[in-house]
Amino acid sequence: MADPDPLAPHSMSPDPLARLPSLPCHLNGEITTLREARISPLDRGFIFGDGVYEGIPLYGQPGRAPRPFRFEQHMARLERSLAETRTPNPHTAAEWARMALDLIAAHADADHVLDWFFYLQVTRGVALRDHVMPPGLTPTVFATCLPMKPPTPEQRARGVACVTADDFRWRKAHIKSISLLGAVLARQISFDQDAVETVMFRDGFLSEAAASNVWVVKGGIVMGPPKDNLVLEGVRYGAIEELCAQEGIGFELRRIPRAEVLAADELMLSSATKEVLPITTLDGHPVGTGQPGPVTQRLYAAYQRAKQALFTT
After folding, report:
1. What are the tens digits of pLDDT across the range 47-98?
2. Can you give the pTM of this predicted structure?
3. pLDDT tens column, 139-152
4. Identified catalytic residue from 149, 176, 218, 307
């Protein structure tokens, strides 16, 4: 009999809190559990989605404490999102890092897990409902650190299927906002078609996927949309540019028309959990040869070496 999924509901109780796993989380300076954590119904994150978040991978080795990957870049993006929303950062980078390690230590099975995903969320705080930003609020801080759920070995080996859709979301996609209804609806499009992601186009040009950045490979050159307000600049943006430089692979950011995406030699997704993942089917049609391509495979291998370097520097 297979071990139960620790993140799966533990009962069919009508009480939604009872269905949550009793896993540790951080809320406003205290370690509690997902079942016990409480926020005010007037928290602006709940009422307006008035908050931002980050998701940071931590990688481990047997006998070694997990270490965050590209932590400085994640902290820089958090600062940008907070500045855009005029929200003070309630913690220093060192305090955020300590929070992740404290959450890992609070897991009963921490010694059996190597790789973790640290999710942190900052909302403006609690106030009577009013669209105007009230000054002087204390931000609400929530965080979890849960075992990483990476793509399966089969997905790595064969690539994944994706579908396309128009990008119907707002025009401040560069903010990593907790207001994710647009992303939820976009991801559901692919889920309903048994696909892994929804590759989106705005005015006929590639933007991103519901929860990933999208990369086009043509003639051995890796191309992505420019860094602007229409795309969330994934931390992998900088990582892939650096890895391309190391591997001698051309790299370019520009507007990419839909026709170029459909004619790509290779397509790939990137995110904190997907890392570098090949798309081999788009809207039911093969991408390139229909198999993971050589550029994607080189970048994935280089990404793994960058992870290992956490423990050699």
Report:
1. 999 999 999 999 999 989 999 999 999 999 999 999 999 999 999 999 999 9
2. 0.91
3. 999 999 999 999 99
4. 176
The 3-state secondary structure of the chain reads CCCCCCCCCCCCCCCCCCCCCCCEEEECCEEEECCCCCCCCCEHHHHHCCEEEEEEEEEEECCEEEEECCHHHHHHHHHHHHHHCCCCCCCCHHHHHHHHHHHHHCCCCHHHCCCEEEEEEEECCECCCCCCCCCCCCCEEEEEEEECCCCCHHHHHHCEEEEEEECCCCCCCCCCECCCHHHHHHHHHHHHCCCCEEEEEECCEEEEECCCEEEEEECCEEEECCCCCCCCCCHHHHHHHHHHHHHCCEEEECCCEHHHHHCCCEEEEEECCCEEEEEEEECCEECCCCCCCHHHHHHHHHHHHHHHHHHCC
- Reply yes or no on whether 274 is catalytic: no
What's the confidence (pLDDT) of residue 313?
66
pLDDT-derived band at 12 (thresholds 50, 70, 90) equals low
